[in-house]
Amino acid sequence: MSLLDLHTLDHCELCPRRCGANRAAGQRGACGVGSTLRLARAALHFWEEPPISGDHGSGTIFFSGCPLACTYCQNYEISSGGFGIDVPSGRLVEIMLELQEQGAHNINLVTATHWAYMLPRTISQARALGLQIPIVYNTSGYELPEAVLELGDVVDIWLTDYKYADAKLGARLSNISDYPERAAEALTQMTTEIHRRGGLRYTYDGLMEQGLLVRHLVLPGFIDNSLRALDAIWTHAGDVPIAVMNQYTPNAAMKAQGGILARAVSAEEYERVLDYADDLGFSTIFWQEGGTVDESFTPAFDTTGVLTSAP
Ligand code: SF4
């Protein structure tokens, strides 16, 4: 039986949590969702890495729910707060076509891990109706390699995090005890899928058409985790494009809690991580200017584009 078969929702094991929720009967899994597709926003987004956003924007679709539970999440309204609107899967097909019509360079599926079972069918339907732009799978990295394998023919670009090399830190900050191993397995499979399809490919004007881009968010005070995460990316994916991000901004919970995660990443910390990435040999490193997140990195989750086309 395929991992992405609809009736796997009877006992969901779509992500490495394998919590076994009976989503088909309306039970919500550890990701916070049942069986009805819920979306929070669908609009052009201009703040991904340049080969993804280009000049016209990435057609970004934010899915509600998340298998992780990161205490510092910037998207907590949708990841753990359940914000969004329930829509039939046919609406997802329409949204992809509407974003293409608006000029999107690609369709960017943000945290679709727990909806993966419907992606091969919906993407194929959109292709049959004229969708031509690449599909970006934008993920926390906490994926099953079997799911990556089954999505390998419909996903063109894997835009994945590698958050933790330190399992204890993953347990403390994302309530997940096996992030490093599971993310390494998934990253290895993503690398295999892209090699199978002929490797990285860009358009003449520098947009990614097919490939893998690995992101790492530097956390204040946890620089050793960042260095080991870069080691893991190099080990499991080799010289792929990476994005080393310093946009960590303490959310209300982190500010209230105080301590090391109540501050931003210092310039010295960020430089140390960037220097290490350079020393390892990564030839394409995207980095960020400024010390903290700009509001534009976190769009308004106001259901724009979910029920009707974004203006
Ligand atoms: S996708 Fe959600 S319901 Fe399924 S195993 Fe993961 S956390 Fe549980």
From TrEMBL:
Keywords: Iron, Iron-sulfur, Metal-binding, S-adenosyl-L-methionine
Pfam family, one: Radical_SAM
Domain (Radical SAM core) ranges: 61-159
CDD domains cross-referenced by the UniProt entry: Radical_SAM
Signal peptide as annotated in the record: none
InterPro entries xrefs: Aldolase_TIM, MJ0674-like, Pyrv-formate_lyase-activ_prd, rSAM, rSAM_sf
Family matches, as PANTHER family: FORMATE LYASE ACTIVATING ENZYME, PUTATIVE (AFU_ORTHOLOGUE AFUA_2G15630)-RELATED
Protein name: Radical SAM protein
Lineage: Bacteria, Bacillati, Actinomycetota, Coriobacteriia, Coriobacteriales
